[in-house]
């Protein structure tokens, strides 16, 4: 009960802080580019804030249920591996709103202090990278442990397909990022640091996420009982949706959305599609974790 209370208060606090950031005026150049009045901008922001709040709630809820399930099986061979997945999900859940709050704070600070733009941009980019990277390090460690425990190793064909898809994603992301004319404005870093401290860690995070989703799927096929198998497969699908959404965010958010001639309708459509994909991922994880807890309590 104490853990749930802490999670709830943390969630509410971060939501309120992020909502408060919308009370500050946005740069005039941004308003003019989007052809919006101040009221229109705030109304549109509200349509983005509401789904974000629900996604954050699903992430916190999913962690709480998976943590409860972990406590029930902590003395089993699977326990420590599921605990690592729960830790990763906790970091991911807290990182979502915390990253948004800090990012909004940095944006407001840079707006009123132009000399802070370089440092603020660098901090924001590394912060956005850090939470998913640390999270999927834990999740991947847990899913690898479950795979080894179940002795269900990936097939040669599956490994080759995953490697081919990852190579294509990596090469395309590197080319798009380095070909962007305004990449130095986006990252405030030289090319060699963009590659070594931004691109490479993102690619590693994506590799961990894709591998974790596949390993969870493998474990689901060896889980005892049809209900367990379906539930673990639900978690695998949720992890896959989350990591795919993060890949798309980087493709669009760090490359395509920086073009100044992007129309508002297209921008909103992209944002809503990404929010929808993220919501599906976190809801699958939340429902899967809740079902695991209920199965174990029976």
From the alpha-carbon coordinates, what is the Rg to the nearest angstrom?
Answer: 20 Å
Name the beta content range: under 5%
Please tally the helical runs, counting DSSP H or I stretches of 4 or more residues. 10
Mean pLDDT: 82
Q: What gap, in angstroms, lies between the N and C termini?
A: 20 Å
Apparent shape: globular
Total strands: the figure is: 0
Low-confidence stretches: none
Helix content: over 70%
Secondary structure category: mainly alpha
H/E element order: HHHHHHHHHH
The number of domains:
1
Reported for the largest beta sheet, the result is:
none
List keywords for this structure.
298 residues, mainly alpha
Q: Please, could you describe this protein's structure?
A:
This protein has helices at residues 2-21, 28-34, 38-72, 79-112, 117-150, 156-179, 183-187, 191-222, 226-253, 264-297. With 298 residues, the chain is an all-alpha fold. It starts with a helix and ends with a helix. The chain has one domain (2-297). It is built from ten helices and no strands. Helix 8 packs antiparallel against helix 9 and helix 9 (226-253) runs antiparallel to helix 10. The mean pLDDT is 82.
Task: Please outline the helices and strands.
Blueprint lengths: L1 H20 L6 H7 L3 H35 L6 H34 L4 H34 L5 H24 L3 H5 L3 H32 L3 H28 L10 H34 L1
Helix pairs in contact: 1-3, 1-4, 3-4, 3-10, 4-5, 5-8, 6-8, 8-9, 9-10
